[in-house]
Amino acid sequence: MSSGLGPPTAAVRPREDRATADRVALSAATARGARSRTEEVRAWLAERRRAHVFEVTRIPFAELRQWRFEEGTGNLVHRSGRFFTVEGMHVVESDGPYGDGPYQEWQQPVVRQPEVGILGILAKEFDGVLHFLMQAKMEPGNPNLLQLSPTVQATRSNYTRAHRGTDVKLIDHFFRPDPDRVLVDVLQSEQGSWFYRKSNRNMIVETVDDVPELDDFRWLTLGQIAELLHEDDLVNMNARTVLSCVQYPDTSPGALLSDAQLLSWFTGERSRHDIRVERVPLASVRGWKQGVEAIEHEDGRYFKVVAVSVRAGNREVVDWDQPLLEPVGLGVSAFLVREIEGVPHVLVHARAEGGFLDTVELAPTVQCTPGNHAHLTPEHRPPFLDTVLDARPERIRYEAVHSEEGGRFLNARSRYLLVDADDVPLAPPPGYTWATPGQLRALTRHGHYLNVEARTLLACMNATAARPRGGQ
Amino acid sequence: MSSGLGPPTAAVRPREDRATADRVALSAATARGARSRTEEVRAWLAERRRAHVFEVTRIPFAELRQWRFEEGTGNLVHRSGRFFTVEGMHVVESDGPYGDGPYQEWQQPVVRQPEVGILGILAKEFDGVLHFLMQAKMEPGNPNLLQLSPTVQATRSNYTRAHRGTDVKLIDHFFRPDPDRVLVDVLQSEQGSWFYRKSNRNMIVETVDDVPELDDFRWLTLGQIAELLHEDDLVNMNARTVLSCVQYPDTSPGALLSDAQLLSWFTGERSRHDIRVERVPLASVRGWKQGVEAIEHEDGRYFKVVAVSVRAGNREVVDWDQPLLEPVGLGVSAFLVREIEGVPHVLVHARAEGGFLDTVELAPTVQCTPGNHAHLTPEHRPPFLDTVLDARPERIRYEAVHSEEGGRFLNARSRYLLVDADDVPLAPPPGYTWATPGQLRALTRHGHYLNVEARTLLACMNATAARPRGGQ
Fold first, then answer.
1. What count of CB pairs under 8 Å joins A to B?
2. Element (H, E) at A388
3. Residues 6+ apart with CB under 8 A from A425
4. B6 contact residues in A (CB cutoff 8 A)
5. Do A16 and B258 count as a contact with CB atoms less than 8 A apart?
6. With contacts defined as CB-CB under 8 Å, which chain B residues touch A114?
7. Where are the stretches annotated Disordered (chains A, B) (predicted)?
8. What angle do CA A207, A213, A215 make, to 5 degrees?
């Protein structure tokens, strides 16, 4: 068919690749995978949990062998200088010029890890349908230790080390991927309340190579993963954020705001927040106290910094110790959902977090740990929190408890909800606006628009669309 | 026609607004404005230059009355604590893991102004064609003092002050704009080699109100502004960056890389650069020396920090003094241009600058001050610099000298060029890739993709498309 005249190395192609969106939709619609049955995933995870030694023990800071409080600053650092540090952060927020954001100032401990890691999922077609290689991975902070993870999770230190672990073959797929095989590739932020300006490279790369079938890995369709996203503590945070960046086709006829209007609203939110953040020594952080086993807030709110000792492996067992951040209670992250002329919209919040690279990112309507606000009168509690907590069961479109990153956070769990709220006004309060899931998906092509909690909810929305509630 | 059943406050609209792109194209194609003739703009600018008192005098630092070197740090600060500061910056760049970026470490003075200003152009239809309200504005650092500027240039301090100047009415258009009237609204970076993480809100807002015709303002079409962009030192940097964000329709059939591939390449470039930047006291900056009238590099390279005294006004004359950064030579910013299957592409460079918010932004193929590299052997000079400097006249698609921001920089001028280079390979060296002007325009809907020099060239490309060379 080809005339053979065009140079083989140069070809102008359409700027948008429609075929990939169709392949994504097909995988999402495929509930029976070619390689594994969904019902067997739980049993496989339990089996892998038994196959590994994995013991996590809380220890006092004094028993940390590989970590120490740095002289002078009191920062918690690894003896090698690698991995991450626990430092202090001083945040001053004075929101103007509209005057609707109060002045706030606080200090807190924060995890600093100024290197970009890779969260990569390998994809491959079986029977003409895209499958994704998910790993059964242990992490010390997970309440159930082992969860479904991306194919690889690698810090820069990991993947540049001469001595490489079991990821050696799989990480190579993400190192210099063939541009024609990249489905997702974007830097996304992590928790801005716990991390100082952390971002990771979220990737999905397709392969046509044979991939060895290892015990800790399973190929699953997006439809299968959607089912699993309805279970508690099963799909880990790193998998959820990568999945949130998948470009499902947008079938809705439009949105309340055009894309240009949504971006303009966001620009206004970024501009009206004035947030100055300084790193400070951990030892000097005001409002927090250091004990034998924990650094905690004076009123017992937010989180603690604790230490654990870990013993892990299957054939070869390794020991290490490390600090973890342990939130004080179960969090709530929820989008209110409203159909506008038949098109579902969610109420997004332009939320400031001290650790964000740039002022605000789009967050769930409600994102908090209710216990931190229990002492406040209703009018001082976070907007819409009571709407979410008091929602009748028939208004709850989606609900599951998910864990945050188990390599840095201990028992950090949140209820993720999608709650019908057709009675919430079309003109929401300042700092909130309505956007469609399709608009949010388009924003995940770029970094620093959606925060990690909003991305988890977006992954859940994709899953809810793929498998409507009660439709198992 | 309407059934009258829909709620009047809610309407789902298409996510993309095609009508605006058509109106932009019409304005670009309109060489004769409804309000002013293009040929008269130069005379009007000269007349405004005469109408104002504007005297700029270099002074030694000791004669600064409103600024002082802060005790302890030596930072240059305003006595009120407002406006901006001149501080130090320590940059460490260690690019891996691909190993093609060398380790670099340096210190330098830098301007810090951690507030978001507004650069706003007001738009209005006359005879069915969009016109843009441009101001004849004096700035102390401009070589010719007065240039064509946005309708308003306001720092946050300016527009939140109780006491407001002549901009009072015009700035209100940009304060809480009607979402249906916003044509451009995005936060964009400024010079990362001279500013520490500076960004401004670039806006174009349409009005249907009557706007008083003031002596310092003229309504011009995009076609008229395109002609003026071919003149030296006429359209100021702030006008150029706002104009670069105008969403002209993309008429080309595609690109060498799809948008997803271009974004993936960019993510890879951001990931492979590891840049740590610390603010340091100006007094401690290594490699720079402080004299009576200038802080300068020990080898006389890059720029100087100097001080000026300004006397300005027309009816009411005000005096002030301030520091300015003065580059040591004429800069060069150039895109190499190559047609691929008939579609023009430019060679963009993922360039690290110490003052960027996030590692790299897309920059011109060549962006440097040649004098800073004159002492180096050819193989150590910036890639493609000689291609640009040696280009025969017939290969030069566009050339003009433009000034950088005259409120902070003194005589900061660069030759901006578009140079035909059909012999440059389709597979360029690491850190470079081919992209179409349409792709770059789409990226200016978001911040921190294109640096300010690339945005000036994008505005020039839009102008070249609107008025082909020699077509006056």
1. 159
2. helix A385-389
3. none
4. 341
5. yes
6. 276
7. 1-22
8. 135
Q: Please, which residues bridge with residue A322 across strands?
A: A308
Distance CA A14, CA B250 (A): 12
Kindly give the confidence (pLDDT) of every residue in chain B, 472 residues in length, as a single tens digit, with 9 standing for 90 and above: 333 343 445 689 999 989 999 999 999 999 999 999 999 999 999 999 999 999 999 999 999 999 999 999 999 999 998 889 999 999 998 865 444 456 789 999 999 998 899 999 999 999 999 999 999 999 999 999 999 999 999 887 666 653 445 545 788 899 889 999 999 999 999 999 999 999 999 999 999 999 988 999 999 999 999 999 999 999 999 999 999 999 999 989 999 999 999 999 999 999 988 899 999 999 999 999 999 999 999 999 999 999 999 999 877 788 999 999 999 999 999 999 999 999 999 999 999 999 999 999 999 999 999 988 888 888 888 999 999 999 999 999 999 999 999 999 999 999 999 999 998 999 999 999 999 999 999 999 999 999 999 999 999 999 888 654 443 3
Reported pTM: 0.95
- How far, in Å, CA of A244 to CA of A462, rounded? 8
- Answer yes or no: do B116 and A445 touch at CB < 8 A: no
Asked if A258's CB is within 8 angstroms of B116's CB, the reply is no
Which of B431, B424, B247 is CA-nearest to residue B337? B424
Amino acid at residue number A398: Y
A254/B15 Cβ within 8 A: yes
Angle, CA of A222, A228 and A233, to the nearest 5°: 135
Contact residues, A window 180-209, toward B, CB-based 8 Å cutoff: 180, 182, 185-187, 201
| Pairing between β-strand B85-93 and β-strand A217-220 as defined by DSSP bridges | unpaired
Please name the residue of chain B whose CA is at the shortest distance from the CA of residue A157.
B97
The interface pTM score, or ipTM, of the predicted complex is 0.94
Determine contact: A407 vs chain B, CB below 8 A.
no
**In B, residues 257-276, which contact A (CB 8 Å cutoff)?**
257-261, 263-265, 267-268, 270-271, 274, 276
Contact yes or no for B114/B199 (Cβ under 8 A) = no
Encoding tokens for residue A472? 């198992």
Question: In whole angstroms, what is the distance from residue B86 CA to residue B364 CA?
Answer: 27
Q: Which residue of A has its CA nearest to B5?
A: A341
Q: Which chain A residue shows the shortest CA-CA distance from B197?
A: A358
C-beta atoms of A12 and B186 within 8 A? no
3.10.20.30, 3.40.50.10960, 3.40.630.30, 3.90.79.40: which CATH number matches B259-272+329-465? 3.90.79.40
- Provide the 3-class DSSP secondary structure of residue B210: coil
User: Residue B271 and residue A97: Cβ atoms within 8 Å?
Assistant: no
The answer to whether A147 touches A137, Cβ cutoff 8 Å, is: yes
Domain edges within chain B: 18-52+115-244, 259-272+329-465
Instruction: Render pLDDT for A11-40 as a digit per residue (tens, 0 to 9).
Output: 899 999 899 999 999 999 999 999 999 999
Burial profile A178-208: b = 16 or more Cβ within 10 angstroms, e = fewer: ebeebbbbbbbbbbbbbbbbbbbbbbbbbbe
Domain A259-272+329-465 in the same topology as domain A18-52+115-244: yes
Given an 8 Å threshold on Cβ–Cβ distance, is A182 in contact with B12? no
Assign a CATH topology to domain B18-52+115-244.
Nucleoside Triphosphate Pyrophosphohydrolase (3.90.79)
Q: H-type helices in A287-328, by residue range? A: none
